[in-house]
Amino acid sequence: MDNSQSYLQELNRWADETKKTLENTNLPENENWIETITDWKASVIRYLEQGEEIMTEDLQVLQDQGQRILNSMVNYYQMDSVPYGKHQLPPLPYAYNALEPYISEEIMHLHHDIHHKAYVEGLNKAEKALYLNLKDKNIIKHWLREQAFNGSGHNLHTIFWFNMTPNSTKYPIKEIKHQLDKDFGSWEKFRELFTNVASSVEGVGWAVLLWNPRSGKLGVQSIEKHQLFQLADSIPLLVLDMWEHAYYLQYKTDKASYIKNWWNIVNWEDVNNRFVEAKNVKWKLY
Ligand SMILES: [Fe+2]
């Protein structure tokens, strides 16, 4: 038997062993991976059955495919990154009715289960089109816009859910308290400024407290259109959803009450954790 044949048999054995391991686990998506490996194994077997010397280039292609499958699988199960098109809706860190009376259970259901889910699905679709299967290069702009819109929507909602808690300290704490005092004069002054930013958002957008590594200061900003994300390079610490779906059902046009009540459920522990992590990012200051 020549070298390429014995190498093919080795690949075939690897496919069998990996499939067996996956079959014996309850890992998520294991059926998809088994299917992928079975497809690849079929090509290996085709060459084996020909029983002839395989061209070096063909062997290389086969080997690369196997390596890619293995890398994606390791990547997927280690969860050290989110594979393209595989974002998931994070579960709420509290019950749907936990933020009542400030935000109703009905809003939380619609907001999380319908609106946030739609962003996750839109982002996955955009990533698949951009990174895995770009068929029409002429519409790349469309998919970039979809990625920005849905990606910002997914990220901001994820921050938003954790930014809130039924057990709010009601006042900033620890490092973030000191920085708010340092940069804005006092917590009350910051709250007034942030409230004004939130009120200024017209219908669809967000109010954001952010850390600006370029100036070494906290700042506030509104984000009015996800696809035109301003202040790239900055890290949002605290966000308030001012899209109408976030409050209209309960507060109708009384945007001011929504903002005022929302301060009762801010999770300052979370804001502080985000701040401490974000401060590790060190840009050269300009
Ligand atoms: Fe929202």
TrEMBL record:
Glycoprotein in keyword set: no
Assigned EC number: 1.15.1.1
InterPro entries membership: Fe/Mn_Superoxide_Dismutase, Mn/Fe_SOD, Mn/Fe_SOD_BS, Mn/Fe_SOD_C, Mn/Fe_SOD_N, Mn/Fe_SOD_N_sf, SOD_C_sf
Manganese/iron superoxide dismutase N-terminal domain location: 86-164
Domain (Manganese/iron superoxide dismutase C-terminal) ranges: 174-274
Protein name according to UniProt: superoxide dismutase
Taxonomic source organism: Oceanobacillus chungangensis
Single annotated GO MF: metal ion binding
PROSITE patterns: SOD_MN (PS00088)
Keyword terms: Metal-binding, Oxidoreductase
